[in-house]
Design brief:
This protein has about 475 residues and is of the alpha/beta class. The protein is built from 17 helices and eleven strands. The strands form three sheets. A seven-stranded mixed beta sheet has the order 3-2-1-4-5-7-6. Strands 8-9 form a two-stranded antiparallel ribbon. Strands 10-11 form a two-stranded parallel ribbon. β1, α7 and β2 form a beta-alpha-beta unit.
Amino acid sequence: MTAESTVPSPGGQPREYGSSPVSVIPSRETDGGFRFPSGQRTAARRAPWLPLAAVDAVAALAAGRTLTEIQRHPLLVVALLLGVVVLNARAALYRPAPQPTLLDELPAVCARIAVTWCALAAVLAAFAPQGALSARSLALGCAVQSALGCAGRGTVYWRRRRALAQRPGAALVIGPAGTAQRVAAAFLRHPNCGVRPVGVVSGRPSGVEGLPVLTTGEEVQRALIQNSVRVVLVVEPPSGRGPMLRALALAGCELWEVDADSPSYDREGRYTLAGFACRRLPLGRRHARIGKRFLDVAVSGTLLLLVSPLLLVCAAVLRLIDGPGVVFRQERIGKDGRPFTLLKFRTHRPVDAHEAATRWSVANEQEMSRFCHFLRRTSLDELLQLLNVLWGDMSMVGPRPERPYFVAKFSQTYPGYAARHRMQTGITGLAQVHGLRGDTSIEDRCRFDNAYIDNWSLWQDICILLRTAAALVRPTGS
């Protein structure tokens, strides 16, 4: 939304275009060329959900058998079983912590059992008053199921912790050599966490003693196969290693981001391993990527069909008012730092390529025609980006893409800016629906964009699209 520019860029005078020392494209030697050998995959150690689901099912069936009122209605036992399993799945109780303990999950498990029983009692009271559950029966059913379910989960977790301590999974640590060696040493001092680092992946070797430092894709592949690596610990922003991390995820590795230098006060989705705050990286969620891409194609394709007459009208009026060159093309940085060509209606003609690449906003440009001001105020100039979405360069929802000059500049100035590129850039996003468009705080945009990525869900994308549609009724432009 900040394509053509005449207002100086934020944060001081711009340097010469292309002089930034920060690379925004992953290194081909270490990441871009990494491919796992065809037909060879590591055996990922994933906590299987089936034993936990089986425990919940047995507990529900046993609790249903204890009450005469429930035995009269076999369908209620099935409803009880499905209710508990669905609620536990929604709460990620079938994806336990790396070192699972029953006490951590006890309140969540018991609360969902109680909710399911209360719902069951309400249904019985509404449709079969003569067979309604008494308070004693309700309490007995909850107690029996909670006791059996917790006992079963405790047994499963005890067996898993014992197996992890006896056979820890081989791991690679990715990040700056010094920090990665320090994290690896900490994990080696705590073998009970079930992770045994065998190597460090870094851009350059270090004089620090410790595990072997792997600097090329071939060395990583060799270590992966020879050691049957199952876990990857990432101690740097994941965006810088996007291609390699996705290849490792497809190879069956479980990816963990480790806060190596400072404690994390955001505990959502985080666990503790060897004293470090860790969280799973979602790069391997293929079904989620498919769902997001399906939404992008469906929405962008439908909108292009609906607004194609409007696009033709805008193009014709621009051609009459402003002459040839209706479409504005500009290089932007997308997922994993890869450049692509963004499309917009041309609402301003930069003096030269340097100005187009290094100036910030034209929202108050006086030389712009009234029609061009109208296009920007209503965001109609952005509609051509639906083609970028359809082609796969962008998504409907995601962090807004920027030019290479500003990506390099902001990555140096604002912590977390580079991490925005771990997800596909978008036409709209969480930052935009909170009013962060045009000449607004880059720091705030970073925070909202990274929060969107950390808590991504398909439903969140739908909500952002609906809020964007509502915001178009009261356009402010960019």
